[in-house]
């Protein structure tokens, strides 16, 4: 075994299967303060290859800051973050190289308005990964197919629905060939009728074995897709476990109080 850092609530067989997988993200004793404001107060979290971990918790609890520390959009105040064995918080880390391995999808889609869908999907491949036009377009088209938007490659972002724009943003992240994907409330800005299409794409990605760390308020997604759910409050992980346990039978009053507000 690897020293027993597995979920305390899973069964023995689950524990062993879980421990056998490669560690994709390892966050240890992570703290982040903005001036006097302590936002992350000692976070320990391990995500293994192929796992889907959903992070839930009230607004302001530090969920976005945690994701941003994982891909170094924020510099941790102390503690370590490892991505696939590389300590990304170390002194000689190539930030661009780290970020290239991590796909991130935000609440706001952040597409380039002056580029077509295909242009949005190829620009970073060409500039950052130095792929040629033809290869970049092949990769882009195969990822557009994955998100069900093949017919939109020539469109500009503006006329697309929010759900379509978010699926383009997911395809853009996938086109960089990331080892893992971070999602920060990817459906929170969408009209309710558009949420399902985006969640369906994420569900398919999970089924394909993508490692995913997902901040979400979509409890049915967490319940059905997550291997583990992490409840954060006030800068700490209060409780974590498999969804049926954490959402279904939370152990702590703080978790129950939060869930009773969102369910
Ligand atoms: P969540 O995503 O759970 O809503 P955040 O991680 O966005 O929480 O924010 C946690 C706290 O950190 C909030 O009080 C927020 O105002 C503060 N915060 C986040 N980013 C910054 C920043 N760049 N500068 C100062 N305070 C910040
Ligand atoms: Mg947030």
From TrEMBL:
<keyword id="KW-0029">Amino-acid transport</keyword>
<protein>
    <submittedName>
        <fullName>Amino acid ABC transporter ATP-binding protein</fullName>
    </submittedName>
</protein>
<keyword id="KW-0547">Nucleotide-binding</keyword>
<dbReference type="InterPro" id="IPR017871">
    <property type="entry name" value="ABC_transporter-like_CS"/>
</dbReference>
<dbReference type="InterPro" id="IPR050086">
    <property type="entry name" value="MetN_ABC_transporter-like"/>
</dbReference>
<dbReference type="GO" id="GO:0005524">
    <property type="term" value="F:ATP binding"/>
</dbReference>
<dbReference type="InterPro" id="IPR003593">
    <property type="entry name" value="AAA+_ATPase"/>
</dbReference>
<feature type="domain" description="ABC transporter">
    <location>
        <begin position="25"/>
        <end position="259"/>
    </location>
</feature>
<dbReference type="InterPro" id="IPR030679">
    <property type="entry name" value="ABC_ATPase_HisP-typ"/>
</dbReference>
<dbReference type="InterPro" id="IPR003439">
    <property type="entry name" value="ABC_transporter-like_ATP-bd"/>
</dbReference>
<dbReference type="InterPro" id="IPR027417">
    <property type="entry name" value="P-loop_NTPase"/>
</dbReference>
<comment type="similarity">
    <text>Belongs to the ABC transporter superfamily.</text>
</comment>
<keyword id="KW-1003">Cell membrane</keyword>
<keyword id="KW-0067">ATP-binding</keyword>
<keyword id="KW-0472">Membrane</keyword>
<dbReference type="Pfam" id="PF00005">
    <property type="entry name" value="ABC_tran"/>
</dbReference>
<keyword id="KW-0813">Transport</keyword>
């Amino acid at each position: 075994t690897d020293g027993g850092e597995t979920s305390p609530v899973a069964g023995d067989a689950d524990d062993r299967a879980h421990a056998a997988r490669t560690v994709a993200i390892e966050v240890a004793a992570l703290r982040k303060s903005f001036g006097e404001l302590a936002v992350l107060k000692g976070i320990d979290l391990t995500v293994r290859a192929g796992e889907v971990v959903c992070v839930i918790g009230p607004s302001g609890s530090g969920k976005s800051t945690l994701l941003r520390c994982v891909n170094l959009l924020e510099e941790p105040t102390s503690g370590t973050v490892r991505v696939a064995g590389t300590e990304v918080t170390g002194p000689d880390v190539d930030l661009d190289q780290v970020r290239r391995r991590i796909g991130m999808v935000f609440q706001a889609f952040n597409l380039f308005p002056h580029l077509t869908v295909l242009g949005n999907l190829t620009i970073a491949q060409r500039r950052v990964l130095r792929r040629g036009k033809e290869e970049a377009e092949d990769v882009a088209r195969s990822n557009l197919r994955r998100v069900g938007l093949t017919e939109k490659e020539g469109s500009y972002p503006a006329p697309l629905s929010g759900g379509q724009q978010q699926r383009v943003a997911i395809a853009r992240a996938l086109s960089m060939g990331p080892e893992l994907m971070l999602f920060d409330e990817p459906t929170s800005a969408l009209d309710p009728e558009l949420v399902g299409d985006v969640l369906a794409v994420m569900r398919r990605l999970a089924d394909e074995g993508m490692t995913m760390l997902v901040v979400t308020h979509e409890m049915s997604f967490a319940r059905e897709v997550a291997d583990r759910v992490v409840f954060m409050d006030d800068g700490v992980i209060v409780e974590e476990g498999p969804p049926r346990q954490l959402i279904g039978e939370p152990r702590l009053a703080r978790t129950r109080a939060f869930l009773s507000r969102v369910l």
